[in-house]
Amino acid sequence: MSAPGDAGFLDRARQLLGADQLLTGDGLEAYELDWRKRYAGRALAVARPGTPAEVAALVRLCAEHRVSLVPQGGNTGLVGGGVPDGSGRQLLLSLRRLRQVRQVDRDNLTLCAEAGCLLAEVQAAAGAAGLLFPLSLGAEGSCTIGGNLATNAGGTQVLRYGNARELCLGLEVVTPQGEVWHGLCGLRKDNTGYDLRDLFIGSEGTLGVITAATLKLFPAPRATMTALAACPTLDAALALLGRARAGAGATLTGFELISRACLRLVQRHFPQIPQPLPDDAGAPWAVLLELSDHEDEAHARLLLERLLGDALEAGEAVDAAVAQSLAQAQQLWHLRESIPLAQSEEGLNIKHDIALPISAIPAFVKDCEAALQAHCPGVRLVCFGHLGDGNLHFNVQAPEGQDPAAFLREQEPAINALVYDRVLQRGGSISAEHGIGQLKREQLADSKDPVALRLMQTLKQALDPLGLMNPGRLLRRP
Amino acid sequence: MSAPGDAGFLDRARQLLGADQLLTGDGLEAYELDWRKRYAGRALAVARPGTPAEVAALVRLCAEHRVSLVPQGGNTGLVGGGVPDGSGRQLLLSLRRLRQVRQVDRDNLTLCAEAGCLLAEVQAAAGAAGLLFPLSLGAEGSCTIGGNLATNAGGTQVLRYGNARELCLGLEVVTPQGEVWHGLCGLRKDNTGYDLRDLFIGSEGTLGVITAATLKLFPAPRATMTALAACPTLDAALALLGRARAGAGATLTGFELISRACLRLVQRHFPQIPQPLPDDAGAPWAVLLELSDHEDEAHARLLLERLLGDALEAGEAVDAAVAQSLAQAQQLWHLRESIPLAQSEEGLNIKHDIALPISAIPAFVKDCEAALQAHCPGVRLVCFGHLGDGNLHFNVQAPEGQDPAAFLREQEPAINALVYDRVLQRGGSISAEHGIGQLKREQLADSKDPVALRLMQTLKQALDPLGLMNPGRLLRRP
């Protein structure tokens, strides 16, 4: 559905990339429909450049023809940030062909990868050198490192290693003017001017296109030890977190919170998954702890058993199970990772990816749950997440027996307001790790500090004065 | 030496702050002369606001009167970034009265401090809560946390904990328009828009004024163990670094490189400082290792002794001394920290605070040393620094018996060019931790990637269109 003026643009883009790499017409749903199937867009064309120079030339062509563009990696985003709008006038810029791991530097503990490398490929390249790239998340087999950086992805190891931003040392970026910033610095220390890197990371393609990155690697730990502990209260879970941090330091690489309601949901839909903690202990919370040790398995086991023993004695835990094998450890993680799937089996629900100061979590959960029950008696809270990072997946499910679709339709705005108001009151974030995209753009505009919002708009206007880089994502169109 | 139009400005500033807190006239050297005594400026006045609101009002007043301002913390910077120029028309904005530690949140592991708090005060406030704020550097008794953040300070624990940027979660900033951005977020995860925090950190007061920060704290380690090892080559020192990282993980908190020439210089000027490694081992390099352990001293000692034993066996070290007491550990650090003082005793020299990919360091040092000797036979290299971060203090001293002042005067430009060219060829940085200020502004303009430089100028122009925030520092005046 292209306008007449687009023909010249498409011809030139085809010339630039070769006809094979400029896709038009039907059958482009893999690029146009987002992973959660909430946003079905329509692209002018899908461009698949093969080099950073082709990306730059394409961006210059877009600027010349005033065609806006939407960068896309693995199309696994959860907020509609990487799919075109419905106008049929936006160019979908797929980075998937930029797929080279350019360098692994073992002594410098760095790896340079192009934007279209899958996260799992980056992990594998590090592993092949006997090293660890610790970014890890559910979509790692299909998301790209470029997308991870554009959205500052989180995942399960943030507690120890930080978000994608903390794992990146340098970037190669095509600016909205189609210039290439060669910033693939592999340095731990570089105080030569403003931090451009962190400005592009997390900007969701609205300030430029990341084409490659230099990433931090780490020595691989020699042993990993996992346990599940039952906690009588959220305060007890927090005390256990403090104890684990003090006693294990950076050896603590995972501390995941799981409510008993989550465990029951998994039990209901996936009864074959072993549940090592009986449901009769009266503990409404469980935590999954992981230690990653640089000595050996015996040392890690001793450390974990001592920690849990002390926690049991202090009443911070009432029961605990330490995985006795790699298989058992994987089962515990599988249990944790099956929660979203079990929730899907239960039907549609209202999801919140929130962060809070860790100290504020017990009061927040108590207050918010009471308010939800008052608002909608019988509503079910499915609360789990990365307690060590203050990041909760705070999902709300229809009361038992009610139609989930109707619940979502009727209750989403009110329940979002109820939850987000309480998050913001306590200095929290309405998007901990998923970003803003289209889904939370209006909520951001309504809730962000007004000075911060003006600063962001100023930056957008200064760097992308034509407004062609992923417009309407993250920030409202001006 | 104020111009007639300044009188109205000074009257209003006096009204705003009270006469006591607006200093004019003579006797202001403590604010006008930089710590290294390289830049002697002259301020229109020294303003000492007592609250962030006063800072904001002052910035608005400056904007109205087109008075440029220079923010200053402890005035310990090494690149002339915090002192006024010689015009007598710039307002020196001292942040030293913003001195409150606003909050310590033990469960969230955060501390909120105002910009004028001394780094040592922040460390002490964390320590009083049984926690650690790990930023640590020579000037900690007189530098401020605001200055540390404005310059993205480094120090001795970067290997484990990162630079100032990595230790900060949120900021309160007065913008060039005199608005207050309330960004004192204490969250580990917050993907709600562009990373404004990291844009202000390291911007050296050219984009706004940091008035407070929320900082990351860590559980204090339970034992620290320190050793000095003699290495036969730089490659061997690198191999030892790799071994220590793989075997100790994040327990490794220090890995400092010291050349034998540095040790001899300390021996010459401070013969009372014990030197545990004899000078006859034929090893031209030493490294200072530090482990910080969350278990206990026995565990740390075992780990360190095992590491060093394996390194000796592998030939990565030829001798090693483990500190047997806290006093001995402090002596080892004292030895390391006496190098700059010993060098001062030896006379003026040409300093370089550089960073390189760690893997490039052996070849860089060899090549650069040969080129220096060819350029100026007998020249003495004083090379030490944070090997684990790729950060070298690569200082060049006159040949024995030559006049140091004449050497500095005659050789500085040529030797800077010789060193920096080789740093840049290998993807290094001309300022690892000290920043740019006035000292390296021209070098930055000449050597930075041109696209990066344009992006920085665009950001400066967008955020500070009147050009009143610390003009001529970091970037050239337009």
UniProtKB/TrEMBL annotation, chains A, B:
It comes from the Bacteria. InterPro entries: FAD-bd_oxidored_4_C (IPR004113), FAD-bd_PCMH (IPR016166), FAD-bd_PCMH-like_sf (IPR036318), FAD-bd_PCMH_sub1 (IPR016167), FAD-bd_PCMH_sub2 (IPR016169), FAD-linked_Oxase-like_C (IPR016164), FAD-oxidored/transferase_4 (IPR051264), Oxid_FAD_bind_N (IPR006094). Signal peptide: none annotated. Gene3D superfamilies: 3.30.465.10, 3.30.70.2190, 3.30.70.2740, Uridine Diphospho-n-acetylenolpyruvylglucosamine Reductase, domain 2 (3.30.43.10), Vanillyl-alcohol Oxidase, Chain A, domain 4 (1.10.45.10). Residues 39-220 form the FAD-binding PCMH-type domain. Keywords: FAD, Flavoprotein. PROSITE patterns: FAD_PCMH (PS51387). Belongs to the FAD-binding oxidoreductase/transferase type 4 family. This is FAD-binding oxidoreductase. It comes from Roseateles subflavus.
